[in-house]
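Subject: mismatched residue count in predicted assembly?

I count 532 residues in my input, but I want to confirm that the predicted structure covers every chain. Input:
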Amino acid sequence: MPSMSTLNAISTPAGGTLVPRHRLSTRLWHWINAVTIFVMLMSGLMIFNAHPHLYWGKYGANPDPAWFSIGSAGTRGFVEIGTATITTTGVLGLWTDPDGRVQRRAFPYWATIPSRYNLALARRWHLAFAWILVLGGLGYWARSFFNGHVRQDLAPGRGELSPAHIWHDIKNHARLRFPTGAAALKYNILQKLAYLSVLFVLLPLVVLTGITMSPGMNAAWPWLLDLFGGRQSARSIHFIAMALITAFIVVHLLMVVLAGPWNEVRSMITGRYRLPKERAS
Amino acid sequence: MISRRKLILGVGAGTGSLLLSGCDRLGESPRFQSLLDLGEKLTYRVQRGLTDRTALAPEFSAADMSPVFRSNGNTMPRSIPYRQHLASNFRDWRLVVDGLVGNPLSLSLADLRRLPVRTQITRHDCVEGWSAIGKWHGVPLGMLLKQAQLSSQARYLVFHCADDFGGTNYYESIDLVDAFHAQTILAWGMNDQVLPVAHGAPLRLRVEHQLGYKHAKYVMGVEAVDSLQRFGQGRGGYWEDQINYEWYAGI
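Triage response: the counts match. Full output below for your records.
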């Protein structure tokens, strides 16, 4: 399949035409990852439920000060971040399960795999799908560097990183003015930055901090502990990276819906994308 | 436009709840569970095969130690023989090392303390997610195994414990790579004191490449075996049997 830039060089397709958009490797990885990331996220939340506190440093357990906790007191569920307490009754810390029973677990049944408290099973899901995430991610990295996807489609072009250009793009996004016609063939700078930070910052970070929590790997690769400042810091960073990946997914799904879900989803399945019609300006 | 948005949200929520109950049903299916179990096997093979098996777990300075080291699991075994040993300060208690060995051992606490001591400040990681750093004093397990003349048929070591949950005794098992690891010790001391009851007195296992539930407390016997089949439900440990924790807890 021709890459976007070669396609661009040959001709400039007009809005309304169906054009090749996503490579097979991108589409395969996207859907494998769509499943994997949800399993990792939701089984991870169940694992967090086993000990709903986060610490900084090398150690951290119940007697030690936590910077983040989810808990309950009486009929109230709450989240504690530093010295702030936020009431989250019904969603976090204290919620009602489908059988009508009040549960005092951090994340609710609809956010976890499995939906009922089971640390052992959640770990089995998490640590099996971790292999799919890592091997799939490495495969996608290798393919994307090799076939030019990173260089041609994801790397910011000259001038794209200027504050003026970024600000221009932010304003367009805020007004929901998405590129049309041939301009829609390329990722805009906000898309590029979002995809690059997930691909090369957040995913490696979440994987490496995950590995840092393995006592076996601590012996083999002790430098990981130095890099992240100890096992409990790694656990905290793992959680923060998860939250940022979740934020990316929310924005990503929102953008798909706003930009035209049928066309966007088709392009990720068949690879073909109908260029949005040019606006009459 | 609104109806379309509603449609999308509705489809989203419906798919979500379908997927959720689907995941629950998958997780309960034995066939799918054995697929998930491949993850543990892969992790075990890769950690054993691709990393240095003799590499030491990080050791810390006294300044890094947890101010309070929380205890977990059983903190006071109920068994009457154990209570009697405790009352007599473990005077008549013996550690039995048997099974596939040429020279079975029966060692008193005084015998164990006379053997060369290894002291290490290491991090204890509970499967639930917390960590505590403490100092342990004990005899290297590999030294006892040499003294007991471990048979070449032995593949695992089973640790028999004095504590129980609802009448089922705690036990654990490890492979020989971990058994002969320099930091694998049977600890009789903690933080420069005699090992407290809450932490497994008189003797507990420290196996620093693995999670907390592998570090059997109240160890009464070490048995060298060629298979884990005949212990408990055959999964190699109390929690492994009861709720399917991984036998290899290196992650």
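Residues 159 and 222 of chain B are 5 Å apart (CA to CA). Marking this ticket as 'not a bug'.
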